[in-house]
Amino acid sequence: MHPSRITAAVAALALSASLATALAGTATAAPKAQPVPPGHGKSLALAAADGAAASGLDELRHGADEDLVRTSVTPWANGLFYTSYERTYRGLPVAGGGDAAVLSDSSGKVRDVTGAAAPTIKLSTTAKVTAAAALATARGQLASVESASTPELTVLLKGGKAVLTWHTLVVGRTAKDAPSSLDTYVDARTGSVARATDKILHADGRGHHNGNVTIDTAASSMTDTSRGGFKCGGQNGSAYTGSSPWGNNGANDLVTACVDIMYAAQRESDMLKQWFGYNGINGQGGMVPARAGLSEVNAYYDGTKTTYGRNQNGTNQLTGIDVVAHEYGHEIFDRTPGSAGSSNENGGMNESTGDIFGALTEHFANNPNDTPDYTVGEKLNFTGNNQPIRNMYNPSLINNNPNCYTQLTSGTEVHAAAGPQNHWFYLLAEGSNPGGGKPNSPICSGGPSSVTGIGIQKAGKVFMGALLMKTSSWNHLAARKATLTSAKNTYGSVECNAVKAAWNAIGVPAQSGETDCGGTTTPDFSLALNPSSGSVQAGASVTSTVNTSTTGGSAQTVQLSASGAPSGVTVSFSPTSVTSGSSSTMTVQVAAGTANGTYPITVTGTGSATHTVTYQLSVGTTTPPTGCDNTENSYQGSLTSGQTGVQPDGSYYYSATSGTHVGCLRGPAGKDFDLYLQKWNGAGWVDVAVGGTATADEDTSYNGTAGYYRYVVHAYSGSGAYTLGLSAP
Questions:
Q1: Burial of 695 per CB tally in 10 Å (0-12, 13-18, 19+)
Q2: Do residues 566 and 594 touch, judged by C-beta distance below 8 A?
Q3: Comparing C-alpha atoms, which of 285, 241, 233 is closest to residue 262?
Q4: Mean pLDDT value of segment 100-124
Q5: What's the mean pLDDT in 306-331?
Q6: Residue limits of the Peptidase M4 domain (predicted)?
Q7: Is the Cβ–Cβ distance between 315 and 285 less than 8 Å?
Q8: DSSP class of residue 134?
Q9: Would you say residue 17 has pLDDT above 90?
Q10: How far is residue 166's CA from residue 193's CA, in Å, rounded to a whole number?
Q11: CA end-to-end span of the chain
């Protein structure tokens, strides 16, 4: 039994009714299917997303030793779900590329996929440098260390190559006494630092108090238990204690500074929930803690906390609404898929994200002490000239920052590089000539004559939806595609065309495959394989079902073909073409004498568009074990280490009466597979029986009432084929 891993092993499956693509083989006899359980739309959406990931649909293609592991699911408007995935290699996380996101709907259709490009990974996963030695190297980059995370063995993609590294986050101060939070990868072969990126994002702010406001705290401390234990205190990290009313309205009173911080952060969290349906700053209802009283002209987010100092003249603390919301905007960028990248362009978009959430929070709070606007730090007097430090409607008014995408270079400073996306957001929200006392906004050369805004709330939701499609290679071109997808699926053609016009107005060009904003839906389809991998001996064959679905417009004819099969392997389809929404059986025939090995086979569907998925064929590997002959139904599959699969056939079964459910799992010798029986409780799947010994053979027996049931097989350690037998009342 592995009690520490049971929850983690099944957590990613808790809401999904089907992970059909993790399976190999079909049942000899399937229990009778019944009507879909209530709330099953979410499960259908996740099953479609997981199917796309496992099948390697288009940008989600991955190698035989790689998996896409689901890391988050975010419900959205109109029955949509954003699902993000982290790439793993032989069970190790992959950083620097290969991550992905899928947008799917409650009818089980994939709306869009995006993935960060990644090279083929082939390397040994045995470290020559110890974790302790790597941690010492990472800590040695800073003059003083406040904290350091436990090193995790990670594959880093750097310069088109894969490097085995130890990954750790080191927080402290540099030799120049500047705050630093180094996201560090130490080469596990040589012991040198392979990459270190400072997560400290120095922002700007206003030393402006918000007047007498209402904040959520505990009775005797500045701790907000309703938002994940969010707290505010001094530089020692402890929350300030006392009682309400907190603070004294003093410009440099630090408890008052925490009142301003908590007010702005809580309004930002409320804005995300009420306007966008997003669960708080970190997507899970919480946010990192805050510290006031830094004796520097600075405010920053470092991945573990936000910290706020004073202005240049020392006349107030940097705790205005747009400052605080900017810092927590960095956490939103960091916690959404793809996290924060290392390029200047990505850094500029991260800074712009902070500015955008600052403007959104000001508009949501609508505090008379801080009139909503689209400038940053306008009340801070940061350099003594009483001017803002960034301008969203015309970025060039501050330090001649770039208005247009075409003005960016690889060396543009990150705060200045926020200009183009800030400009885009203002145009989308307010337009180029909004009237009503709002400033006009210029249009870059080659853009439309004018842009009509859609309002800040809609613009914010479009932007938030796009962040949920973000990957580690995020840039302006990817943002254009993602915001068009978000606008069209969340609202419709009018908002989509406004997004397109705003990007055109700052010079970001159209991209291949971007969403068509037309009033009619562009015909399109999606592909998935069930299973997406299979094991076979030379001289035999294996089959998989090619499932298609109509994702746009009317159903269409999809022609199927395969490429990449090795010598001695032939692939056929029956039928060779299908109407989208239908399926075809793919047969992979392996001739006698075919060399053992693992081979990726690309399956292509051609219609109004072309889409691909990948089938991983293993020749001469293990055959499914036997030993479950006394059960009523049997299923076979093949899993790589860390993978999970759902049976029967990626779905569930219905038991109309009470009685005993018997499960029998037989896996590869010397490996460690676990078995979970789950029952639908009306809202999700819950474990009712677990077989979790340190072997690949598990047996479960559960006496239960009538209802929906399924089995989850988890390859905890090791890969290979398995047989599952089950009997139901």
A1: middle
A2: yes
A3: 233
A4: 91
A5: 91
A6: 205-333
A7: no
A8: H
A9: no
A10: 9
A11: 27
Distance in angstroms (rounded) separating the CA atoms of residues 701 and 689? 7
Q: Enter the DSSP assignment of 580.
A: B
Residue 657 has pLDDT above 80, yes or no: yes
Round to whole Å and give the CA distance between 12 and 275: 27
Contacts of 195 (CB under 8 A, 6+ apart): 96, 156, 158, 165, 184, 185, 342
Instruction: Report the percent of the chain where pLDDT is more than 70.
Output: 91
402-to-244, 295, 328 alpha-carbon distances in Å: 46, 32, 24
457-486 confidence digits (pLDDT tens): 999 999 999 999 999 999 999 999 999 999
User: Is the Cβ–Cβ distance between 88 and 144 less than 8 Å?
Assistant: no
CA distances from 559 to 485, 522, 583, 611 (A): 26, 18, 11, 11
pLDDT attached to residue 621: 61
Distance, in Å, from the CA atom of 479 to the CA atom of 161, rounded to the nearest integer, reads 25
Tokens matching residue 61: 């293609």
Please, which residues have CB within 8 angstroms of residue 578's CB and are 6 or more apart in sequence?
546, 548, 557, 558, 560, 584
pLDDT-derived band at 15, boundaries 50, 70, 90: very low
Other CB atoms within a 10 A radius of the CB of residue 29 amount to 9
Q: pLDDT tens digits for 606-615?
A: 999 999 999 9
Q: Is 65 exposed, middle or buried (0-12, 13-18, 19+ CB in 10 A)?
A: buried
- The amino acid at residue 99 is D
Nearest to 681 by CA among 709, 659, 712: 709
CB atoms within 10 A of CB 144: 11
For residue 575, whether the previous peptide bond is cis, meaning omega lies within 30 degrees of 0, is: yes
Q: What's the pLDDT score for residue 201?
A: 56
Q: Tell whether the model's pLDDT for residue 8 goes beyond 80.
A: no
Tell me: pLDDT of 432 over 50.
yes
d(CA 281, CA 82) in angstroms, rounded, equals 16
Which pTM does this prediction carry? 0.77
List, for residues 352-362, the tens digit of each pLDDT value: 999 999 999 99
Give strand ranges (E) for 293-396.
299-301, 306-308, 375-376, 390-391
pLDDT value at residue 182: 93
Phi-psi region of 40 (alpha: psi -120 to 50; beta: other; left: phi over 0): alpha
The dihedrals phi and psi of 84, each to the nearest 5 degrees, come to: -110, 155
Counting other chains too, the contacts that 371-376 makes at CB distance below 8 Å and 24 or more residues apart are 374/422, 374/426, 374/430, 374/439, 376/204, 376/322, 376/326
Mean pLDDT to the nearest integer, 193-202: 81
Look up residue 693 and give its DSSP letter. Answer: -
pLDDT in tens, 210-245: 678 889 998 899 999 889 889 999 999 999 999 889
Tokens linked to 397: 């008014």
Q: How far apart are CA 432 and CA 454, in angstroms?
A: 11
Strand 633-639 and strand 720-727: pairing?
Answer: antiparallel
Check if the beta carbon of residue 676 is closer than 8 Å to that of residue 711: yes
The per-residue DSSP string of 31-44 comes to PPP-SPPTTHHHHH
CA distance 461 to 123: 41
Q: What are phi and psi of 452, to 5 degrees?
A: -100, 125
Cβ 434 vs Cβ 440: under 8 Å:
yes
